[in-house]
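Shift notes (night). Ran Thiamine diphosphokinase while the centrifuge was going.
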Amino acid sequence: MSKFVILLGGTVHANDRLRDLVAGARVLAADGGIAHAEALGLEPELWLGDFDSTSPELDRRYAHVPRSVFPAAKDMTDGELALNEAYRLGATEVVLCGAFGGSRTDHTLLHLTMATAHAAEGRKIILSSGDEEAHPLVAGSYRFDFPEDTLFSIVAFSPLHSLFIEGARWPLQNMELSFGSSLTVSNSVRGTLRVSLDSGKAILIAALQPASGL
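Came back to this:
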């Protein structure tokens, strides 16, 4: 197994769960995402991007890190460039750290859909800010280690067929879920959460704090 962490420019809360998640991984930084390295105790082996969101302070602090520089006018985001590089280097598991928040909603949506597309190709990928995690769901069975009462939602990117949810406040059995349905929004963990589906693409987003506003 070769685990990689990609530091992105969104929000990061450097808590114990996130530190455990990234421990022992190889690290790539996408442009301004390198700002999260110190709080997580990480040292990137490569810094990629067009560097349009890198401050002079970060530029000086991480001047020793090898860089792969791209033009601002390019066909991929810095995050996708870093993800492709991780797979080129042999990644079998990837954590997108800082994939949520920040000033670019379009980038957040891209990270969620991009991760799901890679999961559909059989790749293991997790998105995390420390306080929030996202796990792509494609055909198969999943088991999660979320704390009791963790609030979670499943957002479908396509129709979901034969969806099962166990270990939740509102379990489901053999559900056909249409694209755009809110049925699987705002559930909470009861015991060990298990999810399975026969076909479709979705993402499970968990807020790692007690559920509220159900």
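DSSP finds five helices and 13 strands in the chain. The first strand starts at residue 3 and ends at 7.
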